[in-house]
Amino acid sequence: MSTQTPISDLYWKELKAEAEKTAADEPVLRLTLQKAILTSSGFDQALARVNSYVLANGIVGRAELYGMCMDAYQNNPMLLEVAATDMRAVIARDPASSDSVVAPFLFLKGPHVLEIFRVAHWLWGRGRKSLARYLQCAVSDVFGVDIHPAARIGSGIMFDHALGIVIGETAVVGDMVSMLHGVTLGGTGKVSGDRHPKVGRGVMIGAGAKVLGNIHIGDGAKIGAGSVVLDDVPPHTTVAGVPARPVGRPIEYMPSLEMDQSLENDYCPVIRNRELR
What we know:
The protein is an alpha/beta fold. The chain has 2 domains: 7-144, serine acetyltransferase, domain 1, CATH 1.10.3130.10; 164-277, UDP N-Acetylglucosamine Acyltransferase, domain 1, CATH 2.160.10. Helices cover 42% and strands 13% of the residues. The chain is built from 9 helices and 15 strands. The chain has helices spanning 7-25, 27-38, 43-55, 62-75, 78-93, 102-107, 109-125, 129-143, 255-258, and strands spanning 146-147, 152-153, 158-160, 166-167, 172-173, 178-180, 184-186, 198-199, 204-205, 210-212, 216-217, 222-223, 228-229, 238-240, 245-248. The strands form 3 sheets. The chain has a 6-stranded mixed β-sheet. Strands 1-4-7-10-13 form a 5-stranded parallel β-sheet. A 4-stranded parallel β-sheet has the order 2-5-8-11, with no helix packed on it. The longest helix has 19 residues, at 7-25. The protein is globular. The two termini are 36 Å apart.
């Protein structure tokens, strides 16, 4: 009986092979590639090294951050599967990264932010809330992204550019979601408790969009850039404007996978109370 090779193992093989070639082609990057990837024993060690390199400061150093990440990966190996799925999402959806496995892993802030958040979320779930909050603060200082460690975020996520993303404590983000810079999943400021958006699978959220309150964004929805969303969005519906209103239906079943941010193809009569066939 055959067993399926873990996604993280397949991704690690690709990452190491490209790193070896890049190190040969670009001597200036050779030492960086050796420290981060080529001398690592596996994907877990490489990811822990990168996380610790980008976030270390005078308060918490590389060794402490590295140990924290390795502890998380050893106790919850699924974090590595999710990380590999996130990396593949960037390669598949970002034209600027489609020709490289190494570039998203080493150079893009979106993957850095996501994988450090996942460690913080693991710490939060273990009751180590002060340390999780420290990671949230450090990520905000370094990358300009603020994600509460209690938020729940699925796999296959892409933060394109990432700068300025804010995700609140009770927010939920489903699998295969794509969001661009300046997106806020926030509260309205008027309530406590469960107060942040719940975003379904395959949703694409355009740059600068603000989604506020304990509202539901249905699977396969598209939110136009700069929109302010204050009400529930039905599945497979395009909304845009301030405040956002339905303007049509995405031509893609999961807009997040295609990353088509134009709305012109979506401007058609909204089909209400009818499921996609």
